[in-house]
Amino acid sequence: MTHTHQIRVYYEDTDLAGIVYYANYLKFIERGRSEWVRTLGLDQGAMRAAGEGVFAVRRVVADYLAPAKFDDLLEVRTRYLSHRSARLVLAQSVTRAGQTLFEAEVTLVCISEAGRPQPLPRALVEKISA
Fold first, then answer.
1. Using one digit for the tens of pLDDT, what is the confidence trace for 36-71?
2. Of 13, 15, 43, 72, which residue is the catalytic one?
């Protein structure tokens, strides 16, 4: 279960050296995760409104392998790895023309409005377990 999302590098994404600022890769993979959830047919706003929780990043292990530059067209790949009660683990990468620039393993936890862990939404579990 892998999803791909394209992102263009804009001037605002780069640093003084003209390469993508390291923290922006975290923004890129956030967009990739949001699009992955959307392609599963889930609406995060509706999930929150129904009391099914929101996702918070608990852990990120990242490797920066090569720089992206202004105007590059990047692909953010999001791949499901595993889940437990309130936890979801995804592998994500950012590539350019087949070259891997960045890799991360991201652990998300589903939390209530009070900030407490709660079980993953049933609809999500059904989709990733299928």
1. 999 999 999 998 999 889 999 999 999 999 999 999
2. 15
Domain 2-129: give its CATH code: 3.10.129.10
Tokens linked to 82: 């595993």
Of 89, 66, 69, residue with least CA distance to 14 = 69
Q: Is 43 a catalytic residue?
A: no
For the chain, which residues make up each domain, given as ranges? 2-129
Strands 87-96 and 73-83, sheet pairing: antiparallel
How far is 40 from 37, CA to CA, in rounded Å?
5
Helix (H, G, I), strand (E, B) or coil at 49: helix
The predicted-structure confidence for 92-124, as pLDDT tens digits, reads as follows 999 999 999 999 999 999 999 999 999 999 999
Output the six-digit token pair for 130.
């299928």
User: Which amino acid would we find at residue 109?
Assistant: V
Q: pTM for the whole thing? A: 0.93
In 3D space, the residue among 99, 91, 104, 81 whose CA is nearest the CA of residue 24 turns out to be: 104
